[in-house]
Each structure stands twice: as structure tokens, then as C-alpha cells.
Amino acid sequence: MASILAYDLGASSGRALLGRLTDRKIVTEELHRFPNDPVQAGGRLHWDILRLLHEMKQALLKAKHQGVALKSLAIDSWAVDFGLLGKNGELLGNPYHYRDSHTDGMMERLFADMPESYIFERTGIQFLPFNTIYQLAAMKRAGSPLLREADRFLMIPDLLRYFLTGEKLNEFSNATTTQLFNPSKGNWDADLLAQIGIAPGLFGRVVQPGTRVGQLLPSVASELGTGSIPVIAVAEHDTGSAVAAVPATERSFAYLSCGTWSLMGTEVERPVMNELALKLNFTNEGGVEGTYRLLKNIMGLWILQETKREWEREGTSYSFPELIALAERAPAFASWFDPDDQRFLHPGEMRERISQYCRETGQKPPEQPGAVVRCILESLALKYRYVLELTERLSGNRFNGLHMVGGGIQNTLLCQWAANAIGKPVWAGPAEGSAIGNLAVQWIAQGEFANIREARAVIRESFPVTIYEPTEREAWEEAYGRFRAIAGLN
Ligand code: LFR
């Protein structure tokens, strides 16, 4: 039976999923799961990129030991981050984590030379302080020796794919997230690169999702004792792969990719690069088959993950199900904060920041763990309502429900509260959205599916969707009004 392999690397863990097509149904098997622990070194936060490569190789070994012959493999991961190669093809330094503080204030500094509209009309990308453009500008400003030596720029999946294949190529969906790619020109934006003083020669050819981009290097195949395996570039931005897996029947639908981040928006045929999109700070990230993701980043479960880590550091370990059960029993609608306040971006003391936010807005800070978790989850659900309304306003579409995909849907309380907050049903599934979207695009490249529409139909038939109908409408409606006032969202 022919299998294919999807590597999906998230900010807190990575996984390798095997996929097979049996009677027009997708069957997946988790081959390998591993932590992705960033490392603080020399005052900087880095990704442990070689450990990730090591874990990816372990998955190939497991496949070999199970006697699985792989027809292809592909990688997707978080966006914006990158590695630089020297002229000899070696990786220079360890890639920075987008939550490192070296970009603090960089975005505002760049606005002095080029206004936001100048950047937005060239890229259509939302302003996030960690976008690649600000990371490179920060390195330039700091006189980074890496930039002086760099010969090629590769994003995280480009880089891992390069380690496996030796091919130096940039993939489209991820390239758009740099805020250096011009969708109208279909290429890197020379003006923006000139403005930040980065040589255009660093940037390679951009390939579309679904392109076969090489095969395992003989050195890798012989190290692992595997045969040669074709490697495909899918939507290598994990959010692009997650949206590819949304089991929607309608052409126009609203989605929430729910993991460390909550990414909410809709799929569009062309980037929406008007003044309203700029004002609302929406993004147009490149997707499969020439589509774009008109969406907005919401800080997401990161705040809860970080709070859980904080309790662990203090010596109390809670599982997520335990925390959710505590939240359910805590008093409702006690306090809220805007999850997208920038104070929540960097790792650290989330409870203190939430308390500070509550005090600033005249609310009593949550104290018990259940109250803290409730405050986080209610705030997220209410923010979803706000961003869904903005998505409708910007796209001119009304949505009759919300598709939720990604690991975050295991948090059933959040799914129910999202439905309550938006006053519409939530359709949750599949949980492994990114990996399944990754598999789907590999099958499109192999001619198993004609296009993404057909792939979505098969995904719909293969994975269950849980429906959450809204409840407690009046209470949530009233809460939404108060939340907006507290968060200053007009
Ligand atoms: C989600 C994601 C988001 C991106 C953020 C940082 O995993 O890829 O789409 O904004 O991570 O790269």
C-alpha cells in the first residue's frame, strides 16, 4: 500500500503523519511525535533546528522499520522564521525564534522611512512585529555578521527540505509571510529589500505548493538505509496547509485554525489590499491553487500554554483537561483582556500580565487557576466574535458558521464558547488540519485528487466533524458588549 508522509512542525511539538488512500478515504497514522523546545542561549531565543532534523530522520527510520515504502514526503511549519546559508552551503548560526525580543520596536522604526501603506500595498501582509522583514532589519541594524556572510535565505521548511534534498528553493505560501513578497509581481519586492539594505540575491526562486522539488540526498538515504524518496513542496506555511484541510462545501467560508495561534479569516481568490484591510490589519497570505488567506492572527492558546508552563516552573503540574475542568467550574464572565495586547507576545509571566491588564481596566484580577483559565478562554472566544465580524465586513460575506481545525479543537470548552460568542454553529475538525492539508497537496501533486475542492470533499468523508450549537445567547451577547468596551475595540 503506497503511503506518503507529512511532517508538521508546530511551535510546541512536531509530528510525522503517514497517509494512505483507501476506497477514496484518507487514513492517517501518527508515526512520530516529538517536542519542539526553543532554546535560550546568549540572551537570544533560538529554534533547535538540528534536533528537528534529527527527529524527522527518526520518523524515516520508523517508516523503514515498519516496512512502509514512501511515495513522497513534505514539510510544513510555522511561518516568518529562517536560516541563512553561507557560500559553501552551510547553515550560518541557529535560526532565531520569532518571539525573540530583537525585533522589539523595529517595525515602528521602519515606519519612519516607509509608511505602513507603502509596505502594505507591496505585500498585502498584516503588521506583526516579528515578520521576517523586521527580523532582517533588526539583524542589519545590529551589524549581524551572519548577514555579511549570507548567500541564501531559506525559511524553516525550505531549510529542512534543503537538508534532505540539497535543493535551495523558497516556497510560495511561506514566502508571502515575510512581508517582502509582492503578490502583484509574483516575486520578492526589490524596493522593500533595498529599503532595509538586504541583497536581493539572497532570495531564491519561489515554487508553488504542489511542486516536486527533489528527492532524498544519497547521503541521507544511505545514512538511514532508506531508498530515494521524492520530496514535494506543499503549502509549507502550516496555516496554509490547515486551511487546505478545511472540510468546507461552500466556496466562501470562515475558518479558525486553532493551535498555539488562532488564525481566523476566509479564503479569497485575490488579495484584498484596500485601505480597510490595512486599517483592520488583515493579511493576505498565499495559499494553494493561487488562493489567499484573508485573515488575522489572534494570540491563541499560547497564553494558556505559557500559563501552564509557569505553574510547572512553580512546581504544580496540571494537564490541559484538568485546567479545562477547573475553568468550567469557575464563575462566568468575571474578567477579560484583549489577547492581542502586545504584552502577551513574549514568553514569561502571563498571570502577572493578565492581572496588570485587569487592574488597568478596573477589573478584579482572576486568582484561582480555574478563574485564570476561564478568563483566558472567554477572552479568546469573545475576540473570535470580534474578528469574525471584521472578516465579514472586509470580505463582504456573511458566514453561517465557523470551521475550526487544529489541535486546539480538543479543547471542547473553547469550541463551545466560540459558538456561544459568535452566536453561530462551530464545525470542529479535523484536529490534525495542517498535516492533513499537507498530505492532500501531495496527493494533488501525484494526480490522486484533481484539485483542492476534490481533496476537501474526501477530507469531509474521512474525518468526523463535531458540531457545537450556540447556547446561552443573551448572556454572551451582553458579555460581548462589555468585552469590547474593556478591550477598547470599536
Ligand atoms: C501558526 C503560524 C502563524 C504565524 C505564526 C508565526 O503556526 O504559522 O500563521 O503567524 O505561526 O510564524
UniProtKB/TrEMBL annotation:
Pfam family, one: FGGY_C
InterPro entries xrefs: ATPase_NBD, FGGY_C, FGGY_N, Rhamnulokinase
Entry GO CC: cytosol
Domain annotation Carbohydrate kinase FGGY N-terminal: ranges: 4-242
Claim: Magnesium is one of the keywords in the record: no
Organism: Paenibacillus hemerocallicola
Name by which UniProt lists this protein: Rhamnulokinase
Domain Carbohydrate kinase FGGY C-terminal: 254-445
Keyword Disulfide bond annotated: yes
Gene Ontology BP terms: glycerol metabolic process; rhamnose catabolic process
GO molecular function: ATP binding; glycerol kinase activity; rhamnulokinase activity
Entry's family note: Belongs to the FGGY kinase family.
Source taxon at top rank: Bacteria
Alphabetically ordered keywords of this record: ATP-binding, Disulfide bond, Kinase, Nucleotide-binding, Rhamnose metabolism, Transferase
